[in-house]
Amino acid sequence: MPALDVKALLHQLVYDPKNPLLFNNGFFVYYFALFLLLYYSFRHQVAIRKWIFCCFSLYFFYKASGYFVLMVIVSAIVDFIISNLIYREQNHHRKKALLITSIVFNLGILVYFKYTNFFIHLSKDLFQAHFNPLNILLPVGISFYTFENLSYTIDVYRGEFKPVRKFGDYLLFLSFFPKLVMGPIVRASDFIPQIDKPYYVSEADFSKGFYLIVSGLFKKLIISDYITLNFVNYIFDEPARYTGLECLFAVYGYAIVIYCDFSGYSDVAIGIAKWLGFSIQTNFRSPYQSKNITEFWRRWHISLSSWLRDYLYIPLGGSRKGKLRTYLNNMITMVLGGFWHGASWNFIIWGFLHGAALAVNKLWTSNTGSIRKQLDSNGFIQALSILLTFHFTCFCWIYFRAANFTLASDMIHQITGNFDLSVWRAFFSNYKPVLFMILLGYLLHAIPDGFPERVVLRLQRAPLVFYVVALTVFVLVYGYFKTSEQVLPIYLQF
To answer: I need a labelling partner for 16 at 20 to 30 A (CA). Which of 31, 193, 274, 436 fits?
Structure first.
């Protein structure tokens, strides 16, 4: 019997592709408890504290992705060396060659794992080439830590950031487990200066961390997962089987699913970082409250949109080279941003639609002047703008979620050509719990931006028993809605 227990324990400690380690995994509770114990014990010994963090972060990634953890280590070694060579190099051409080496290395890895089979299929379609798809597994989180590597070496090349001299500092930045798997994409200039600071968590930090973790888990595990399993998945899988009304609400459902899923996971990551003495910038700010598509991209996946702006859109010329070039730069940035999400024509279409919308919005902004100011001061027009922006975003989500172009077309066809309000009563009766969850998700999204801060101020004065009761209530609610089928985070595939 003891041998069986040891075997079972060892099985829990190794990577299981069917049960990767994530924040919503039961094993994470034990992992995080042990990590906190060691981290807090050595909180005043910075060098030991760093390596505890590195080791636990790398183990977390191993439990989430297996031996792909070696790629994080290798990429950290390569970019650590190249960044220091760039910093010391005085010759401009050699410095640029080093930067190109880093870009080719990082993008080469990303392209190989993520886009090889896409280009194989493309070559077969265009040139009748006889290449067979390769059996390539996509490493978890590769899109996120690749962009962090690139921003680091580019910042060093630009002279905006001095590279770290200790490899452990860079490894900690890259492997920091709260954000390693699904972001947010963190800049070295924001994160690395925090590494050597004395460990200190104020009451405000603890309260904010608690709020972000619990609210984030609620959005992801209860709202997003429930709507996904009970409604969105099977309608998007076969939209032609369902009425236009069902398809339309599936689109509305997916809009709140992807928001609750990704913003929820980001909030948990930011909240855990708060408890560990690190500040990570907000990644979402009520994006569906945006009055235009430009504002939407200032509120949605902020770490990605700001990365694309600083390292792609501005280097292409931004808005400095005339209107036509500005529109082209917007289009290139958004199409590549769409392609970043996955090797699929649907993601390219999604990016193209957003790029076109950004161009239209810039054209409107630059040519309306005083009329636009009058319209912006009109409450009805503002509400209409929010409604139009939201529905355009929802339309784009169809291409983002559908597995292929055919299914996206079927979804649009059902909504536009097979829409019948007479089925509303039966629809409402069958999907009442799902509709309630969708409504709850949108109500939470509609909370004013300043509300969480007021909650955190109140939490600072709350006794410890309140936190225990709040956590217990959350666990009970989660237990009620929990299903046997695990719903992996959406952005885990990117």
So the answer is: 274
DSSP string of 101-113? HHHHHHHHHHHHH
Q: Which residues are catalytic?
A: 341
Q: Are 35 and 41 in contact (CB under 8 A)?
A: no
CA 7 to chain CA centroid, nearest Å: 36
Query: How far is the first Cα of the chain from the last one, in angstroms, to the nearest whole number?
Result: 42
Task: Specify the 3-state DSSP secondary structure of 134.
Answer: coil
Nearest-angstrom CA–CA distance, 86 and 137: 32
Tokens representing 35?
């990590």
CB 197 within 8 A of CB 191: no
Summarize pLDDT for 440-481 with one digit per residue, the tens.
999 999 988 788 888 888 888 888 899 999 989 998 998 888
Q: Which of 441, 393, 392 is nearest to 231 (CA)?
A: 441
- Per-10-residue mean pLDDT, the chain, length 494: 61 83 84 93 93 95 92 96 96 96 96 89 73 76 94 96 95 93 90 93 92 94 94 95 96 98 95 94 95 96 96 92 90 95 94 96 80 75 94 98 96 93 92 96 90 86 89 88 78 76
- Residue 213, amino acid: I
Instruction: Quickly tell me which residue has 């030991």 as its tokens.
Output: 48
CA–CA distance, 72 with 269 (Å, rounded to integer): 19
How does pLDDT run across 93-116, given as a tens digit for each residue?
999 999 999 999 999 999 999 998
Instruction: Let me know: does 441 contact 260? Beta carbons within 8 Å.
Output: yes
Residue with tokens 């907000």: 282
Compute, in degrees rounded to 10, the torsion defined by CA atoms 448, 457, 194, 201.
-150
> Cα(345)–Cα(342) distance, rounded to whole angstroms?
9
Angle, CA of 316, 320 and 321, to the nearest 5°? 80
Question: Among candidates 210, 212, 174, which has minimal Cα distance to 195?
Answer: 174
Query: How far is it, in rounded angstroms, from Cα 351 to Cα 397?
Result: 10
What is the residue-averaged pLDDT of the chain? 91
Q: Which residue has the tokens 């794992």?
A: 113
The two tokens of residue 487 are 């719903």
Instruction: Tell me which residue has tokens 């703008």.
Output: 385
Give the SS3 label for residue 462. Answer: coil
What six digits make up the tokens of 188?
A: 């070295």
DSSP 26-50: HHHHHHHHHHHHHHHHTTT-HHHHH
Asked whether the beta carbons of 324 and 366 are under 8 A apart, the reply is no
Of 351, 349, 359, 314, the closest CA to residue 335 belongs to 351
Q: Look-up: residue for tokens 């200039």?
A: 189
